[in-house]
Amino acid sequence: MSASTLLLSLFKYKTWANEELFVGLAKVDAEAHKTERHTAIRLLNHIYVVDRIFVGHLSGVPHGYEGTNTPETPTLDALRDAVAATDRWYVQYVESLPPEKLAEAVPFTFTDGLGACMTREEMLAHVTAHGAYHRGAVGRIMAQLGNPPPRDLYTRYLHSAEPERRAA
Known about the structure:
Elements: H1 3-26, H2 34-59, H3 76-96, E1 105-109, E2 115-119, H4 120-144, H5 154-161
Antiparallel strand pairs: 1-2
Helix pairs in contact: 1-3, 1-4, 2-3, 2-4
């Protein structure tokens, strides 16, 4: 399997996991668990903002963020739609990126003003790992409220996307 193929699979998994998590979080009672739900949305918004920051780095255009979250908290529905659009962007980006561009080093500036340089492949890997880390935190909040989170597992995604793998 090539790095491009693996990254595409990981971004499709990220899309799938995000969709499931938003469905699950929508079931959390907004009035009974206002604080916890707000915290979960803030975490998801942080993932979204970092994803958008790296869209900017990968595209070579200013991302417009001054930090890794926004002062305001979006609604769950607005955030879900924005995340879905960004997930589509990443899938399309990875699908269209020539494999030789993965190793290209891209200089950029973090929101704290410090300079950095990562390859496109490293940036894409960071985006997938960062999202998974924080989805786990949201899942923990849901579990503590008695709302079982979706099973956010790459293996589960693969067998859902390609059921013929179960026969192997």
